[in-house]
Amino acid sequence: MSRFGGRMREYPAVSIDRFDHDNLLARAYFLSHCHKDHMKGLRAPALRRRMKSSLKVKLYCSPVTKELLLTNWKYRFWENHIVALEVETPTQISLVDEATGEKEDVEVTLLPAGHCPGSVMFLFEGENGTVLYTGDFRLAKGEAARMELLHSGTRVKDIQSVYLDTTFCDPKFYHIPSREECLKGILELVRSWISLTRNHVVWLNCKAAYGYEYLFINLSEELGVKVHMNKLDMFRNMPEILYHVTTDQHTQIHACRHPRDDDCFRWNRLPCGMTCQNGTPLHLIIIKPSTMWFGERIKKTSVIVRTGESTYRACFSFHSSYSEIKDFLSYIQPVNVYPNVLPVGGTEEKVMELLKPLCRSYRRNAELRYKPLGTLKRACKRDLSDTDEDDLFDSELTAARPKILKQQRGESRPSSIARSENTGGNNDESTESYRTTATYTSLKVDFMDCEESNDDDEDDEEESQNNMVAEVLSQEPDATSTSNFSGVTSDQQESSSDVPRWDMFFKCDRPEETSDIEDNFPSSADAGGSQSLFSDSDGVSDSTHISSQNSSQSTHISEQGSQGWDSQMDTVLITTQERNALDTSRGGSRTAAVSQDTTKYTPLDSRPCKPLSQNRSCAHDVACDLKSKDTEKDADASTTHVGDGVVEVSDNSRTMDLEPRRDSQSSSDFEIPLTPDAEVPQPEKLRYLYKKLAAGENIVCEKRVF
DNA sequence: GCGATCAGGT
DNA sequence: CACACCTGATCGC
Predict the structure, then answer these.
(1) Within 7 A of a protein CB, which nucleotides of strand C?
(2) Which runs of E-coded beta strand occur in A605-686?
């Protein structure tokens, strides 16, 4: 639930998603979506009075949100004060103080948030910088990178602050199955039931809130059965939804509600009162969409679980998972982040601990706070002494999977790489120009991403150790590099040439280039072949739960208790693995169908959700495009290349945009003073270590010596 | 009578 | 587990 107070530090003249207290004095109002917890005060008498006496104050929202809001008579009084802004259309807004006449202009852009129909994020650009208010959002990994308006030219805009939906910002919500996965699971369950006889019906026990519409649409499209709802006047101008829902009870899929709809637990009675059809009693199953999450080491991502004889839970989430949040924020890399939501067991401090490392300001501060020695020790200590299994892969530790992704990531997300390298190496940006070498910081960031790209594997010891090793490797140079700001010189560059680079070392083992892009789309590419050095060990660990899948009597049925999801390994109904296999065997037609349906959701949800295949190729194009343009940009902007891998920046206003060449990664990181005990790794030693890593061997001990 | 808040429920 | 919402009790205006 949103705890956002309504106002952003940078633009306090506007109020977003809160309409009480101080917000009554705002010069403009913004509503991100139509959920009650974002509408506090929106129909209060105080605000109503203000609107009556004001000609200028407006409420800005997406066209769909406007429609949904005005359908509710309680909000009808807003009618002449709402301005619907088209999504992804930057709009200049004058914020006028009606009392003083004082004026401030901001440009606002609505970006699709994927939370519910009409949900958007607000991007504000003006004198006080660029800030992003996410509202509530669910964006898959990589979606931020695909949002054109988050970019300026080829790189991410310089975003000062992000006001972030942190609902699931906790490592325990590490993974939530993708929208497509969940959809498929529900679809197959519903299909298998309602195709038995015409009297087999399904009740979708949805909350009284917007956000399930794409589920209804997809079920209806796939199965040719409309979904029964209590009312649908709010969709009267949304044919994409309207076509798939009905007020006719005589349908096999219901999402109707009743104040006492637990009557449904009495057999075969629907909330709408239906108990039989043509004199024959109904056979009812209940599917309750609910958020299911998986810690990152839990690999069996069942999206449907049977909870009783005729009751099921289906995975469904309105909010981004922890790994999706991380992907989003680490791509944007704002200077500041402010959580809009406190996760349940969490405190503001705890959330900030998780978010800060993904921001620019923290990196600078961290470098100031921790002297080089301290940083190095800290990184090592945490890696090696942390014996808490649950924490083993949390947060930063998750960053280090020994996948050969660096190059790939670099190609598809240049700004992310550039930023992280910068932030790792720069400190006082306002007084001098900088030379930055690319450092292992980027490696770390890369791994942070790629480990999510196949979270369906490896919980075994061997892999864990590999993880640890990789973490060590990626962290230490990182830590080292943080000391760079005091000692980088350009001649450190030269000596790097004969030192093996992690990515280059393994380059020959990599699959063909085109598969690189797949790694950016984990939800659709999980079933893909080996993309990593460790695909073998992945395979081995996979086998451990294949057997448990087979132990289910069929691909669909098993019982479960009501404990946490993580302990329900054997109650899997439909696993992602199974479904992925299904997709593969069907030549991907299934994926295509679902993707297409998702497209239909687009106008309502405002999501630029293209079919996955399209997304991929699109992303691929963008990636290539970005890369080539990036080069130009560096040349014509305020950055100048100084040698290979060193960039000198003279633009003080945008120092964080330093973009060292990715391929500049070199051993120069090692050649600055280290901790007293530390030694500079010799090329031979690096080669040796890489070899061991490639073989999946544990070299942690040797690392300690290092 | 209305709204805000809280507790308790799904 | 959680979300987003509803209902009902209580309090203050």
Answers:
(1) 1-7
(2) 639-641, 646-649
Round to whole Å and give the CA distance between A163 and A122.
Answer: 10
What are the residues with a C-beta under 7 Å from any atom of nucleic chain C? A 1, 34-37, 115, 136, 167, 207-211, 259, 290-293, 313, 318-319, 341, 343-345, 564-565
Q: How far apart, in whole angstroms, are the C-alpha atoms of residue A628 and residue A620? A: 12
CA–CA distances in Å: residue A461 to residues A298, A392, A467, A562, A697 = 14, 12, 10, 29, 11
Retrieve residue A633's tokens: 């940009």
Contacts of A409 (CB under 8 A, 6+ apart): A416, A417, A445, A446, A449, A450, A519, A520
pLDDT at A451: 30
- pLDDT, averaged in runs of 10, over chain A (706 residues): 93 96 95 96 94 93 97 93 98 96 97 98 98 98 97 97 95 93 96 96 95 97 97 95 96 90 71 89 94 80 88 95 96 96 82 93 58 36 32 30 31 31 31 27 24 30 30 30 32 41 38 34 32 28 27 27 36 44 39 32 39 33 34 35 30 34 32 40 65 57 32
- Dihedral angle sign, alpha carbons of residues A360, A362, A368, A372: negative
What local confidence, expressed as pLDDT, does residue A526 receive?
35
For residue A174, the 8-state DSSP code is -
A 40-59, residues with C-beta < 7 Å of strand B: 41, 43-45
**Structure tokens, A269:** 């009675």
Closest CA to A308 of A565, A558, A567: A558
DSSP state for residue A126 in the 8-state scheme:
E
Which residues, 6+ apart, have CB-to-CB distance to A341 below 8 Å? A1, A2, A3, A4, A165, A166, A167, A169
Query: Residue A519 is which amino acid?
Result: D
Lookup: tokens for A359: 């921001």
What is the structure's pLDDT at A297?
77
What is the spatial distance between Cα A537 and Cα A463, in angstroms, rounded to a whole number? 7
Nucleotide nearest to A342 (CA to C1'): C2
CA pseudo-torsion sign A1, A290, A448, A659: negative
Give pLDDT, residue A616: 32
Protein-to-nucleotide distance from the CA of A423 to the C1' of C3, whole angstroms? 36
In this prediction the pTM is 0.59
**Contact of A423 with A441, CB cutoff 8 Å:** yes
Q: How far is CA A622 from the centre of its chain?
A: 19
Instruction: Specify the nucleotide whose C1' lies closest to residue A48 (CA).
Output: B3
Helix (H) or strand (E) holding A105: strand A103-112
CA A359 – C1' B5 distance (Å)? 36
Beta strands in A608-666 (DSSP E): 639-641, 646-649
Distance A516 CA to C11 C1' (A): 62
**What are the tokens at A454?**
């196949």
Q: How far is the CA of A326 from the C1' of C6 (A)?
A: 34
Query: Using the CB atom, is residue A20 less than 7 Å from strand B?
Result: yes
Q: Are A282 and A252 in contact (CB under 8 A)?
A: no
